[in-house]
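Hi all, a correction to my earlier message: I attached the wrong file for Transcriptional regulator, ArsR family. Here's the right sequence:
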Amino acid sequence: MKEELSSVFRALDHPIRRGILDLLKISPKTTTELNDFFPDVTRYSIMKHLNILEDGNLVIVRREGKYRRNFLNAVPLQEVHNRWVGKFVQTAASSLINLQTTVEQGRTNTMETKNNQFHIEQEIFMNAPREKVYKALTEDVQDWWEFRLAPKDQSSQLIFNPVLGGQFIEKWGENQGAVWGNVYYVNAPEEIRLQGHLGMQGAVNSAYTYRLIEKDGGTLLQLSHTASGIIKEDWKQEHTNGWEYLLGTLLKNYLENK
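and the right structure:
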């Protein structure tokens, strides 16, 4: 944990790197596009800054042909805030946020959302080899993942590209769809990590991890899911139940009865 925090603080300790994060907060950008915002800085220097941001897990890179597209990963920033800032200002900040929300939206809405996070940990034993479980979680997700973001009157296809910078996406219609998550860590078939909205709406971000451990002739699947931002009060329970159903029922039946 200390090494991870040190990498984050090092990544933030330069105005150009902080400026890059501000730009990526607006939208993903290629290295060339970022370089255009800093005319007095060489492309080589921008690439070095991006490497440091990537080491701090603040930037996720997806390669598209000869281009490198950079995405902001806000989860480490939220973790730093929770550890070093949030606990010192939580009481005062919460009061101000509640006051502002009450004035703008009415007291009823202040009870529905909170600017915080939730964390879910689950373990499910699968009577199947680890390689088979990993393939089902990624390449075969269309066969068992039941939840959809597409309108009810349209069928959709789920595609999971389990490579660094790959995406877990849902497509429907001619040119419509949604991103469930972006892959920012891969150690197949032991572990894969994703960051994204995971179907949630509004100012919220998720990071979720699948870890696969060989055990008793089968595989122990460990799920870790952290969400931060404007969180509705019932979301933790809804997602806890959702993961139990997805992994403990749908995926388990798919693997063990296939």
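Sorry for the mix-up. Residues 106-114 have pLDDT under 50 and may be disordered.
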